[in-house]
Records
---
Amino acid sequence: MKVTHKAFLAWMAGFILLVPQTLFAELISGYEFLSEQTQEMQLDDFQNPGYLLVESGLEIYEKSGENEQTCAECHGDAGKKLVPESIAQYPKYSQALDKPLTLRDQIQVCWTERLDNFPLLYDDPELLALETFIRNKAFGEKVNVDIDGAMQPFYEAGKKLYFTRFGQMDMTCAQCHDIYTGKMLRGQKLSQ
Ligand code: HEC
Ligand code: HEC
């Protein structure tokens, strides 16, 4: 894509003017940027294809591991003992492992240490299904990642990356998700 000098300057001006406003305003959920039709689909448990994963995640949750234990034995039937507020806080710092864990990492810890199973690859469909099932426990809960204390350097590093140009298009995340929020990119509306 060719960008003229003038267009680039106009774009830069937009960047400088818009970024502070978009950064400090209250963020809107990606749900608000979906078409009405997709919103309806998301709210309908039968139409929403994500629920196929929630269901297969539940099956794995109830399946015995190498040591004959199941997730349910510690976390209750269908995850009843899991705390939704806590699930919505991931990624979270693990004092024991001295590093931040995504929800999927934490499930992997239980998968290997509590069920004695062989570790799964990070993008293994079984692990993704388990994560979707567990994450769905916190449906409607506000995402609430603690960015203080031990998490602070990770937050700062992520923030720096967010504003750094890289990748094939040499763009920053902010270009699409702060400056062009609400605009269409092919068939999709850019969320914050
Ligand atoms: C060229 C434009 C572009 C750039 C650059 C870009 N994205 Fe996106 N991103 C999209 C589009 C399009 C979607 C799908 C529509 C939406 O939800 O915004 C998307 C979706 C997302 C979503 C899911 C949002 C939701 O509500 O479901 C996240 C999270 C995200 N991007 C993060 C990032 C991060 C982090 C970066 C930088 C590494 C980045 N994006 C860079 C275009 C972009
Ligand atoms: C023997 C008991 C036991 C079993 C079995 C077990 N866990 Fe855990 N789980 C724990 C304990 C204890 C923690 C607290 C953190 C830690 O020590 O890793 C935990 C933490 C978690 C958390 C984080 C909860 C939070 O609020 O932060 C999730 C999610 C989780 N386990 C999912 C699973 C899944 C999925 C399975 C099955 C693959 C499983 N666990 C099997 C004991 C267990």
Note: Residues 52 and 131 are 13 Å apart (CA to CA).
---
Amino acid sequence: MRPLTLLSLLLLPTLALAEEPWGKVDRNAAPALHDKACISCHTRMYGGDGSKMYTRDGRMLSTKLELLQRVAACNAQVSAGWFPEDEGSVAAWLNDKYYHFKE
Ligand code: HEC
């Protein structure tokens, strides 16, 4: 095998992971984090469980990266004190549940 081929084989898994802006995260942590810090305002604005914030017409986001950045911005704004991996976990979970962005 040529050295270059070997190198690209070694890099492949890294590239596959790098496609997700939040990296490898534990989505199981997300619901509790989200319940605690994120529902109050969204519910006040949209009623129900507040999830209409994520499905409303004219929502502001269109990529995974924007979603992650928005989660990080809300975290900073409300001083939830989340670590980057918490932001990543919630962004990934919101994407699975509501946004379904492919990129
Ligand atoms: C202080 C009230 C408040 C809290 C608490 C809050 N948000 Fe928000 N959030 C807003 C408002 C207001 C908007 C809409 C901003 C707009 O329409 O310009 C928003 C919008 C969003 C959006 C974008 C919705 C769209 O258009 O697709 C996301 C994602 C989001 N918030 C995530 C979170 C997360 C994650 C948390 C918990 C860390 C959180 N929010 C906590 C007020 C809040």
Note: The radius of gyration is 17 Å.
